[in-house]
Design brief:
Distance between the termini: 13 Å
Strand content: 25-35%
Number of helices: 5
Helix content: 25-40%
Strand order of the largest sheet: 1-2-4-5-3-6
Amino acid sequence: MHCLAVQAFLIASDSGYNSDREKMAYQEYWDLYKTHYDGQAVNIRLNQGIEEYVCHPRYMYQINICVPLNHMDDLGFPFDEESRLLDELEELLREKLETQKVSVFAASVTCNGIRMYIIYTYIPDYCKKVVDEINRVWVYHSISHTQQEDRYWETIEQILQN
């Protein structure tokens, strides 16, 4: 599937999306998908406004920011109060990491008591430093991160196939 197919999926699932809005409001168009993986319920928020960034050579490093939930329901999803905190955390991460298009938020995955933000960047060390700084001051959750090269955005491809 790789790059062109991921871009095609984003465009095809984007019925009536206004390209002028994309230029004005970078990355503000998200779709929610509910699925199952290994018997677990999964919620995926996919950024539909990123087709021009998919597989761009500049964004070849994937950073997964993992946040274990403190208070979840039986399916492993956060209760409303914790969802609001996670929204605040995501906004803080986006504010710091999307500055000057250093990174692109591609997806948010919630499953089995974990929220994971998937971003692509060209400066992974900077992103890891920012996440570590936020982790020192964010008192509600313990944040961790992993990094890998994902030049062809295969993680997003896997998410789309499920």
